Amino acid sequence: MWIYQKKLEYPVRIRRPDARAAKIIITQYGGPDGELGASMRYLSQRFAMPYRDVMGTLTDIGTEELAHLEMIGAILFQLTRDLTIDEIKAEGFDAYFVDHTTGVWPQAASGMPFTSATFQSKGDPITDLHEDMAAEQKARTTYDNILRLVDDPDVRDPIKFLREREVVHYQRFGESLRKVQDRLDSRNFYAFNPAFDKNC
Amino acid sequence: MNDRASMLDRVRAADFTLIDAGLYLNTHPDCPGGLDLFRRAQSERQAAVRAYEAVYGPLTVDAAQATGAWDWTASPWPWEMEG
Amino acid sequence: MNRMNNYYQAPRRRPMRPSDAGCSDETPGLLATLPVAMAYVPMQVWQTVYDGETGLARGTIFPCFDLPFLAYRGASL
Q1: CB-CB under 8 Å, B29 with A5
Q2: Binary contact (C13, A184; C-beta < 8 A)
Q3: What are the residue ranges of helices labelled H in chain A?
Q4: Sign of the dihedral through C-alpha A159, A162, A163, A164
Q5: How many domains does one find in chain B?
């Protein structure tokens, strides 16, 4: 189960609202490579994982992604506070505003609602860990792109933190894959699925 | 930056060491350097949390004061401008 | 069979041998000993870590992962 700590993993202190930046950054809240997808992916995959050390990695990284989701939510909240209707119209925020006002709702920058269609929980340790390594790289590239598009240092600061965490997570999933390999026969890693074929 | 922010930053720094070291230990469970770092970060975190909660209220609901008045909700929430 | 038995089974493997590499075109070295059709990330080696404040600011306590994005206008280390 989860315990909630009343703090952000890394502080978010944005002095200047900017709805244009919010429209972009929302993609890490509910988009295809965002933090909600990442946490649901890892927290779902851990049930089929047959090795406790990898269950641990999936649980702990999945939990940290929820903390990152919260940071993105805080960024969006601070970027959209005190907006005037003129600013909302000028910054192209009116389409989102009509459905959500300045509430936070999981969607991609394109407007596509959050969906589990953008991640897998395949029930095979080798497959799931490859999925996870790819997910971390996709998230890193998304943060790279946000850094290209946003200039405000108050916003760039937590974004850089979140980007760096993706690099570390990639390494840990890669190491977890090595741990799975260690338990299999290297003459044929694909002889069976250790999550399902219990008697091999 | 006020005192509350700096005390919370102390908790954040200690907590972050635990998080990053913990992920390392999940794949390197026997590393003496990692285990030693984790233990030291645990004491630092405990001290930082205790110092913060004594002045600014609970960081987790189980640390809430249930004598007199309920103090879990009243302090600023993390997305409010005080971070 | 109870799944619990799988968790601490001794690995049913033998140490990887250079001959396992079979079809690998790698020059001599570690990679040449690894079986093809699989991905390998090197295990991180322990190193002196950043202090808590620095680690938080950089996003990791491990200097080896401190790999910032630099390809933007006004980038600096």
Answers
A1: no
A2: yes
A3: 19-25, 27-30, 35-45, 52-79, 85-90, 94-100, 125-149, 153-182
A4: positive
A5: 1
Best of C45, C53, C66 to substitute, by most chain B Cβ atoms within 10 angstroms, is C53
Let me know: does B18 contact B45? Beta carbons within 8 Å.
yes
Cα–Cα distance, A152 to B4 (Å, whole number): 25
Residue C6 with chain A: CB contacts under 8 Å: 50-51, 194, 198
How close does chain C come to B2, measured CA to CA in Å? 17
**Rounded to two decimals, what is the model's pTM?**
0.91
Which domains does chain A carry?
Answer: 19-182 (1.20.1260.10)
Contacts of A7 in chain B (CB under 8 A): 8, 11-12, 15, 59, 78
Per-residue pLDDT of chain C in tens (77 residues, 90 and over written 9): 344 443 444 444 555 555 444 455 666 788 888 999 999 999 999 999 999 999 999 999 999 999 999 987 655 54
